Amino acid sequence: MTIKVLLADDQALLRSAFRILVDSEADMEVVGEASDGAEAYELTRATGADVVLMDIRMPGVDGLAATRMISADPDLAAVRVVILTTFEVDDYVVQALRAGASGFLGKGAEPDELLSAIRIAAAGEALLSPAATKGLIAKFLAQGEGPAEGGPGRPGTAGLDTLTGREREVLSLVAGGLSNDGIAEQLAVSPLTVKTHVNRAMAKLGARDRAQLVVIAYESGLVRPRAQ
């Protein structure tokens, strides 16, 4: 199955470089390019994109607002947004994750990292498992505004009490950056059982993917960021 990728960045040269890279892969193709957030949203609807590589800083409607628009659109529930950032804009990154982004990637990432990120996002997994990224997320969330309320396309933390004890435990381990296999090993259960718990937690909390589960775990206080 070919992964349909939409590129949203106001720099034409950067979009061209991304297009060449993505189109060189047999399992993915670029289906559109946008230079601002409003165009990104419209093209996401028009092209049936699976993954949107979204720059945050764009003229007019920025990437953050576009991510909210995509996340709030029920017709685009299966679309995954990967934020492209330089990591210097801490507040933007945490807001993007709250808005429904599936993860983020530095613009200085290696080509293989970018391609891997697209595949991971398309598969519904999180871009939060590497230790360095996990620590960065924890740092951003520690600087956040406190627990978030639910809203269109955005999960809240009020539903945490609907989780079973095991689901809460699995959620904590997801927030710790563990994969399903890693969680299964720690809890002495099968990866399929872990996947079931993760899916149930996402359904109960209204989370689109594992990335939002991590946000909920930190914002609710279920997991505390380690001191940096």
TrEMBL record:
Q: Which domain of life is it from?
A: Bacteria
Positions carrying 4-aspartylphosphate are 55
The cross-references to InterPro entries, in alphabetical order and at most eight, read: CheY-like_superfamily, NreC/VraR/RcsB-like_REC, Sig_transdc_resp-reg_C-effctor, Sig_transdc_resp-reg_receiver, Tscrpt_reg_LuxR_C, WalR-like
Q: Where is the HTH luxR-type domain?
A: 156-221
Might you name a Gene Ontology BP term for this protein? phosphorelay signal transduction system
Q: Which CDD domains match?
A: LuxR_C_like (cd06170), REC_NarL-like (cd17535)
Keyword terms, alphabetized: DNA-binding, Phosphoprotein, Transcription, Transcription regulation
The record, for SMART domains, names: HTH_LUXR, REC
Q: GO terms for molecular function, please? A: DNA binding
Phosphoprotein listed as a keyword:
yes
Report the protein name in the record.
Answer: DNA-binding response regulator
Q: Which organism is it from?
A: Streptomyces paromomycinus
